[in-house]
Amino acid sequence: MATFQLPELQGRIQFGLDGLQGFLLARGEVALLEKANALQHQRRTLGERALLSLAFGGQYSSGKSTIISALTGRSDIHISADVATDEVQAYRWRDIELWDTPGLFADRPDHTAKAEKALRDADLIVYCLTTNLFDTVTAADFRRLAFENGFAPKIFLVVNKLSMVDVEDIDAYITNLTISIDRTLAPHSLSGFNHAFIDAQDFREGDADGDESLLRFSRFEGFIQQLNGWVKQQGLLARLDPPIRLGLSTIDEALATLPDGTFEQNPELFLLNQQLRIVQSQQRRTAAEVRRISTGVVQHVQLLGEQLLSGELGEEEKQAESSFQTRCEEINKSAFDDLNGTLQEAYEQLQTKLDDFARESFVAEYFASVEAGMAGSAPKPGKETGEKGNPIKDIAKDLLGKGAEKFSFPGGIMSTSSQVAGSSGHQLVYTVGKFLGKDFRPWEAVNIAKGLGQVVGILSIAMAAYSVYDHVNEESKAEERQRQADQQLSEARLQIRKLAEAMAAQVQEIYQQEYDLPVIGVIVERLNAARDEVLAREASNKELVEGLSGYRSELKSCLGELYEQPSPDSSAL
Fold first, then answer.
1. End-to-end CA distance of the chain
2. Orientation of helix 317-359 relative to helix 267-310, angle to 10°
3. How do strand 194-197 and strand 96-100 relate by DSSP bridges?
């Protein structure tokens, strides 16, 4: 069954962080207590802003409470049925805010002002109707919100209570409802909005009774899937990245409280830690460069948006929109060209740094001894310890000689073990199963269409609202016309900013999907697994290391799901 991905994934992340925090507190060690307290403080800071705000408005008795209950799976959130309720009611569901805006049609200016402030501040407005559709009041209210106030880009129009009418052909019925809505919204149409035809009560009953036919008829899963698509398109899933990174960083810091040891004391641990630091340091620098690219996208698109709104891109609406879209595509292509060059350079730098480290005499001697099948300067495990091997040796054996044939690299690269033996840096990078080098694939600027097409269309609605407003209000006072124009400009700027942020989030998403998770992430995962194995040999470390390793796996799984990547499996490399 489809679930609302943002709160579902956020719940899993919070559960994992709660467990990690409790685990560190239960240890009772001063250094770990400090890490747990720092985690709690930083989580509180991150949680000050809601992940998402949904404002529910629209028709009186349209089933808003039932929709919220079906969406959240909770029955303890009730939207007031009093049309004249004075205040906007806010409810917290995980880190999502749900706002009720009743009294919108009560002909009370103070009520309307409060409601419209909530609608203006919300990420998404779920505007609810029944199959009775618009009446004179709701039609006027919707047109004002969507076109005069410029909220059209973030309105999700939901027609609820499909079962109010007993029909044989539900698809034909929905087609007729759509035609009726199009007539009301002319010259605009329903297709210009996110929308769904549902029956929330049927979904609740079908879910409770396990009735598949009711679930299908409710069409509620389609509504959830559209919400998931909207969240992804807006780049809102990226808001879940910081708490995951916070947890992973806390785990690294907790493990860093254990003594490193010197090369002479524990060569395996020393080498693994040094390689891990090299990789993670380069990873942080690369992430900073990608943030620079993303920030540049936001700045350039917002500047372009100001040129659009000031008329610099053309006085004709279609000319201005075409110029805006073309320039956005150019900004996007430039960003991905920059990303491609940045990642290629980062990859080459990582290889160089790992190679330089491998050329250190004590490291080279150690790897040479491993290649020869000896334990080198590492302590030989005794039978009484029950240890079964040397992680450094095991990694090297996979990459050298006997293990090389297990890997398949594009273009026949590294077909023999002798090609692998020359460079420790290459050995680690090649474990990923990908080779960037000369064949590093540049990204084409094609994903822009996913976000840009709809937003440009929405901007078209906003711009058309000016002409609609001018036509309808020819007799209005000048100051009222100016107030409306200022409000429209403010909303248009907000939508341009959201477009810019969505484009920037796309850069970050591609970086994660194509490089950080499948390339660097796999290297880090393997090094972490090997280091954890070495650390856990000490009985006093075993419980801490294994516990933290488990929490790391949970958070990495969430990160992979966030960017639609399978969790790295270090044992398969």
1. 33
2. 160
3. unpaired
Six-digit token string for 505:
């989030």
DSSP for 108-155, please give it. Answer: -HHHHHHHHHHHHH-SEEEEEEETT---HHHHHHHHIIIIIS--GGGE
Domain range summary for the chain, segments of one domain joined by +: 49-218, 297-444+474-511
Instruction: Determine the Cα–Cα distance for residues 465 and 460; give it in Å rounded to an integer.
Output: 8
How far apart are alpha carbons 278 and 539 in whole angstroms? 28
The CA dihedral of 559, 563, 564, 567, to the nearest 10 degrees, is -30
What is the DSSP-derived secondary structure letter of residue 257? T
Parallel, antiparallel or unpaired: strands 124-130 and 52-58: parallel
Q: For 205-256, what is each residue's pLDDT tens digit?
A: 999 899 999 999 999 999 999 988 888 777 788 788 899 999 999 999 999 8
495, burial (CB in 10 Å: exposed 0-12, middle 13-18, buried 19+): buried
Rounded distance, CA 495 to CA 235, Å? 13
**What would the two tokens of residue 69 be?**
């209950």
Of 523, 516, 347, 345, nearest to 433 (Cα)? 523
392, two tokens: 């450094």
CB atoms within 10 A of CB 503: 24
Contact indicator for 425, 354 with CB cutoff of 8 Å: yes
pLDDT value at position 108? 54
Kindly list the strands in the beta sheet with 52-58, ordered across the sheet, starting from the edge strand earlier in the chain. Answer: 89-93, 96-100, 52-58, 124-130, 155-160, 194-197
Calpha distance 432→568 (Å, rounded): 10
**Cα 470 to the chain's mean position, in Å?**
40
In CATH, the number for domain 49-218 is 3.40.50.300
Distance (Å, whole) CA 232 – CA 513: 14
CB–CB of 177/141 below 8 Å?
Answer: no
Q: In 3D, which of 185, 160, 191 has the Cα closest to residue 453? A: 191
CA angle (277, 280, 285) in 5-degree steps = 120
Can you tell me the distance from the alpha carbon of 526 to that of 521, in angstroms, rounded to the nearest whole number?
9
The model's pLDDT over 58-78, given as tens digits with 9 standing for 90+, comes to: 877 788 888 888 888 876 666
Place of tokens 């879209």: 325
Cα dihedral across residues 434, 436, 438, 444: positive or negative: positive
- Report DSSP state, residue 73: S
Residue 261, sorted as left (phi over 0), alpha (psi -120 to 50) or beta, turns out to be left
Structure tokens at 420: 């692998």
- Residues 402-407 have a mean pLDDT of 29
Q: Is 291 left (phi over 0), alpha (psi -120 to 50) or beta?
A: alpha
| Predicted structure pTM score | 0.71
Tokens of 408: 């398949």
- Per-range mean pLDDT, top range of 93-97, 274-278, 352-356: 274-278
User: What angle do helix axes 170-185 and 136-143 make, rounded to 10 degrees?
Assistant: 70
Whether 330 contacts 251, CB under 8 Å: no
